[in-house]
């Protein structure tokens, strides 16, 4: 039986939230803009991660992922490609987290007890800052989706 088939599995969802990096190109340049990824700091665990959280009973994973992004970051999100699902043990229970790429829309961050800080970082800096090694794979998965406006995209 896989963790996804187990009724004790904690189900969660989140997003790798991105936005175009502020342009540093000179006027008239044809250079593609870079990307920034949003990481959240959770004081309870003193860690940096992608915005995510547990699903409410009956909640669809994508709806839960977008709700968690809004709650944790203050930003609306436009979902893109589904990214890999991760499964691991958390406090002795199986946990399954589904992820999507999501473009940041309008919003503003407000600290809370759950998330006290966010950072917008380049993909490389985000990989370095992420606390859990398993979360670093989502940076590569996001970049592999060949986002419109991403470096190398025309």
Oligomer: single chain
Identify the overall geometry: globular
- Helical segment count: 3
How many β-strand runs? Answer: 7
**Secondary-structure element series:** EEEEHEEEHH
What share of the residues does DSSP label as strand, in percent? 35-45%
Distance between the termini: 44 Å
Instruction: Please compute the radius of gyration using only Cα atoms.
Output: 16 Å
- Main beta sheet: 7 strands, mixed
Mean pLDDT: 88
The share of residues in helices is 10-25%
Q: What ranges have pLDDT less than 50 throughout 5 or more consecutive residues?
A: 1-5, 150-154
Structural class: alpha+beta
Short description:
The chain is an alpha+beta fold and 154 residues long. It has three helices and seven strands, in the order ββββαβββαα. It has helices at residues 61-73, 123-129, 133-144; strands at 10-20, 35-42, 47-49, 52-54, 75-90, 93-107, 117-121.
Explain this structure to me?
With 154 residues, this protein is of the alpha+beta class. It has three helices and seven strands. Strands 1, 2, 3, 4, 5, 6 and 7 form a seven-stranded mixed beta sheet that branches. A hairpin with a 4-residue loop joins strand 2 and strand 3. It is globular, with a radius of gyration of 16 Å. The termini are far apart.
């Amino acid at each position: 039986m896989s963790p996804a088939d187990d009724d004790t599995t904690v189900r969660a969802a989140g997003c790798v939230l991105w936005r175009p990096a502020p342009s540093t190109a000179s006027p008239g340049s044809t250079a593609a803009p870079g990307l920034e990824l949003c990481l959240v700091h959770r004081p309870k665990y003193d860690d940096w991660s992608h915005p995510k959280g547990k699903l409410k009973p009956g909640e669809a994973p994508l709806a839960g992922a977008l709700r968690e992004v809004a709650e944790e970051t203050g930003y609306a999100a436009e979902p893109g490609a589904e990214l890999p699902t991760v499964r691991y043990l958390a406090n002795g229970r199986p946990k399954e987290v589904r992820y999507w790429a999501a473009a940041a829309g309008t919003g503003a961050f407000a600290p809370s007890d759950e998330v006290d800080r966010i950072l917008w970082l380049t993909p490389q800096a985000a990989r370095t800052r992420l606390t859990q090694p398993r979360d670093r794979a989502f940076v590569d998965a996001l970049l592999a989706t060949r986002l419109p406006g991403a470096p190398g995209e025309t």
